[in-house]
Design goal:
Elements lengths: L1 E3 L8 E7 L18 E10 L2 E15 L6 E15 L6 E3 H12 L32
Antiparallel strand pairs: 1-6, 2-3, 3-4, 4-5
């Protein structure tokens, strides 16, 4: 997702991309569904020797509940503010690399299927959300 520097003007531009996670290096990450594309809306503006951007990235996050281990799949939209310093002779900026970095840094691995999740019994492994534990507690 490279953007030509000369296309970003002081009045700003809006770009929309659809990209596969593997295209920006997210194929090996556990939290993103590699089969679903990322939808990116980038509002970019040129200010002197910088390109400033506001990005909205929509993707399907994959995770497991931290209490009951239920598989979770949810569409999430994240927002990032980025800036690129434009060096002399530089013709392109790479939004894909910056999005990859921001997604990895901002990812919160602990997730719950719901706030009142009861989890699993540490003795028998029963899912306390859907069944009663038969363990004898002291």
């Amino acid at each position: 997702m490279k953007v030509r520097v000369r296309d970003v003007v002081s009045g700003g531009i809006q770009l929309k991309f659809v990209v596969r996670p593997a295209d920006i290096g997210l194929a090996e990450e556990d939290f993103i569904d590699p089969e679903n594309e990322l939808k990116v809306i980038a509002d970019l503006v040129r200010v002197d020797d910088f390109i400033l951007g506001k990005l909205a990235v929509t993707f399907i996050a994959e995770n497991y509940c931290a209490r009951c281990l239920e598989h979770l799949s949810k569409e999430i939209t994240t927002h990032y503010e980025v800036d690129f310093e434009i060096l002399p002779g530089e013709e392109w900026v790479d939004l894909g690399e910056r999005i990859r970095e921001e997604m990895i840094i901002g990812y919160l691995p602990r997730a719950l299927c719901r706030e009142d999740c009861k989890g699993i019994c540490t003795d028998c492994g029963a899912d306390l959300n859907s069944e009663k534990c038969e363990c004898k507690k002291e």
